Amino acid sequence: MLASVGLGALMAGGAVTIGAAPASAAWSDCTYDYACMWQSTDYPYSPNASFQYNIRQLTASNNLVNSVVNRGATAKARFFDGFDFTGAYFTLDREGNLSGAQWRDPYLANGTDSTTTPWSNRISSGKFV
Ligand SMILES: [Ca+2]
Domains in the chain, please, with CATH? Predict the structure, then answer.
């Protein structure tokens, strides 16, 4: 009886969303105070790599990152083409910035707000600056 009541309420609701969204599929899956990287675009599920201070060499995700977010508490995050913070880089502001500057990017293949150079499958190290 309860089940049928529930269904009736659901149908009457009209715009109720049926089918759960993925439990975890957002940049917010990056722990606050970290910068995070995903191998896929649009930050799906848990990050594939992250750092709270820096990461000198990506391992499993080296040259495979396609979306990034900076949830750092105070600093900008810089992502480098080479190991040990070498080579070309781009910088993201932090989530809590008040300037409106970019602090995440869901699709590195077309660059970032600061560059049109493609950054898909390229990041090898990163640090807060
Ligand atoms: Ca690289």
Answer: 22-128 (2.60.20.10)
Q: What is the 126 CA–ligand 1 centroid distance (Å)?
A: 11
- Cα R_g (the chain), whole angstroms: 19
Distance 24 CA to ligand 1 centre (A): 27
Binned at pLDDT 50, 70 and 90, residue 5 comes out as very low
- The edge-to-edge listing of strands for the beta sheet with 67-70 is 49-51, 35-38, 67-70, 104-105
What is the average pLDDT score of the chain? 87
Its pTM stands at 0.81
Q: Indicate the SS3 state at residue 101.
A: coil
